[in-house]
């Protein structure tokens, strides 16, 4: 197996991150630095990243209802609670598929499968990520329409999105809008609403491809079934 694939399979990094690690000289096979992405790994080889050995584990997939106030990473240098801390009995080295902000709640998949992660987060595969946003102000078709064509976020136009106005509360001057996107850029949903003049004050992800949060309260998690995993694979439009 090629070295970049081997690292992704081991769940240590996505395939793209694995390539960076290799190119930057962090990876050794049997003690020798490899910087060629095409290098083949044999079952008997000892592969290390910055001196720590990596092993190919069984692939596992979990669905978490992330509460607010938890960060979407594997560890935190300030010792804050991470999403991985919420699944203490999982022994494999899982990490989140994409990120939700500290103050965003909702659906998050965690896995040690780098190829699966790449497939789920790449915008060309058009996996729906559905968010429920409470925004300050009155949402109308007119002010939301630009979201369906794309708005400028961090100097780049977003891909067309779908919206559905769930509720408008004129008295409290706020609205609830469902937004479906295929990308996962930093703070993307908040920034998209900001572009159309609406500030998000509460955000939750309610759907990811074929998955929703039925039966899971904030902080709860469960294993995905084989069927659910294959449905997610099938939801990718560039299915390979
Ligand atoms: N968009 C955001 O702004 N925040 C998230 O957590 C997810 C998507």
Architecture overview:
By secondary structure, this protein is an alpha+beta fold. The protein has 3 domains: 3-53, Roll (Structural Genomics Hypothetical 15.5 Kd Protein In mrcA-pckA Intergenic Region, Chain A); 61-122 and 215-238, Alpha-Beta Plaits; 128-208, Alpha-Beta Plaits, CATH 3.30.70. Helix content is 21%, strand content 29%. It contains 6 helices and 15 strands. The protein has helices spanning 3-9, 15-23, 114-121, 141-149, 188-195, 226-235; strands spanning 27-29, 32-33, 47-49, 52-53, 61-66, 95-96, 104-111, 129-136, 152-153, 156-157, 162-169, 174-181, 199-208, 211-212, 221-223. A hairpin with a 4-residue loop joins β11 (162-169) and β12. α1 (3-9) crosses α2 (15-23). It is elongated and about 65 Å long. Residues 100-101, 104, 187-190, 203 line the site of uracil.
């Amino acid at each position: 197996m090629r070295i970049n694939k081997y690292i992704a399979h081991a769940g240590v990094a996505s395939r793209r991150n694995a390539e960076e690690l290799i190119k930057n000289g962090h990876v050794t096979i049997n003690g020798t630095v490899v910087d060629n992405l095409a290098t083949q790994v044999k079952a008997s080889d000892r592969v290390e990243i910055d001196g720590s050995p990596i092993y190919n584990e069984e692939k596992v997939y979990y669905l978490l209802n992330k509460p607010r106030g938890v960060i979407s990473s594997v560890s935190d240098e300030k010792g804050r609670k991470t999403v991985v801390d919420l699944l203490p009995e999982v022994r494999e080295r899982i990490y989140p598929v994409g990120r939700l902000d500290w103050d965003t709640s909702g659906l998050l998949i965690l896995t040690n499968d780098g190829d699966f992660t790449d497939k789920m987060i790449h915008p060309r595969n058009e996996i729906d990520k559905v968010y429920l946003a409470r925004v300050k102000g009155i949402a109308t078709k007119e002010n939301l329409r630009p979201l369906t064509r794309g708005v400028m976020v961090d100097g780049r136009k977003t891909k067309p999105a779908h919206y559905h106005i769930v509720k408008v509360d004129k008295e409290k001057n706020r609205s609830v809008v469902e937004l479906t996107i295929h990308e996962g850029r930093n703070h993307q949903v908040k920034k998209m609403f900001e572009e159309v003049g609406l500030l998000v004050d509460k955000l939750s992800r309610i759907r990811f491809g074929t998955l929703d949060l039925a039966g899971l309260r904030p902080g709860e998690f469960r294993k995905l079934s084989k069927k659910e995993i294959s449905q997610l694979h099938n939801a990718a439009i560039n299915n390979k």
